[in-house]
Amino acid sequence: MAIPARNAIVQTCWVVNDLDEAVARWHRVSGIGPFLVMRHVTVTEPHYRGTPSVTDFSVGMAQAGPLQVELIQQHDDKPSHYRDTVPMGSEAMHHVAIMPDDYDATRAEYLGQGFEEAASGIFGDMRFSYVDTSPALGHMVEIVEPTKSIRRFFAAVTRAAEEWDGDPATLIREL
Questions:
Q1: pTM of structure
Q2: Domain that holds residue 79
Q3: How many CA atoms lie within 13 A of 85 on its CB side?
Q4: Three-state secondary structure call for residue 81
Q5: DSSP label at 49?
Q6: How far apart are CA 130 and CA 21, in angstroms?
Q7: Is residue 12 part of a domain?
Q8: How would you class 86 by CB atoms within 10 Å of its CB: exposed for 0-12, middle for 13-18, buried for 19 or more?
Q9: What secondary structure, in 3-state letters, does 111-159 show?
Q10: How far, rounded to the nearest angstrom, does the alpha carbon of residue 71 sit from its chain's CA centroid?
Q11: Is position 167 within any domain?
């Protein structure tokens, strides 16, 4: 049975203690790479549990077949949606991401089921919402607005994996 596109998981994410070490470990163990890395990501209109709040974090993304793998390191010790499910000093799977055609309707569906929005904001021109589905699923769901720019970025992550020659010297590509 085919999964409706609006429910397709496009990314899975782990919170890690040290992004560079985790990238090297993930490559060593699974062979995936390269990782496109953004340090100290800037988010516009960031909210945590409904309150304006900035979290200092970096991300690395690589493609593993049809699924994108994201690794996130939180640099500060402030409360955040990352720390809600992965305590400081721990590493664990944090969320899966979906990119539905209708961001607003999908967000409303999750909130209508009684789940709370743990975090939200804007990255570039893309809105995102982390819905705390951890009581039901054991992890959060990130809803990603399907803008042209994020689709281009996800395609660039895929293309980098397809074209990569496996050279460890180019495992991390800073953005």
A1: 0.95
A2: 5-161
A3: 23
A4: helix
A5: T
A6: 26
A7: yes
A8: buried
A9: HHCCCEEEEEEEECCEEEEEEECHHHHCCEEEEECCCHHHHHHHHHHHH
A10: 7
A11: no
Q: What tokens appear for 165 in the block? A: 């020659």
What CATH number is given to the structural domain containing 143?
3.10.180.10
Q: Note whether residue 172 is domain-resident.
A: no
Q: Are strands 44-48 and 51-52 parallel, antiparallel or unpaired?
A: antiparallel
171 within domain boundaries: no
Q: pLDDT, tens digit, for every residue of 32-62?
A: 999 999 999 999 999 999 999 999 999 999 9
pLDDT attached to residue 7: 77
Identify the H or E element spanning 172. Answer: strand 172-174
Is the Cβ–Cβ distance between 131 and 117 less than 8 Å? yes
Residue 4: pLDDT above 90? no
3-class secondary structure, 62: strand
CA pair distance 170, 36, nearest whole angstrom? 10
Q: How many domains does the chain have?
A: 1
In the chain, what is the greatest distance between 2 CA atoms, to the nearest angstrom?
47
Q: What's the sign of the alpha-carbon dihedral 42, 91, 64, 80?
A: negative
Position 9: which residue type? I
Q: How far apart are CA 110 and CA 89, in angstroms?
A: 30
Task: Give yes or no for a contact between 32 and 69, defined as CB atoms under 8 angstroms apart.
Answer: yes
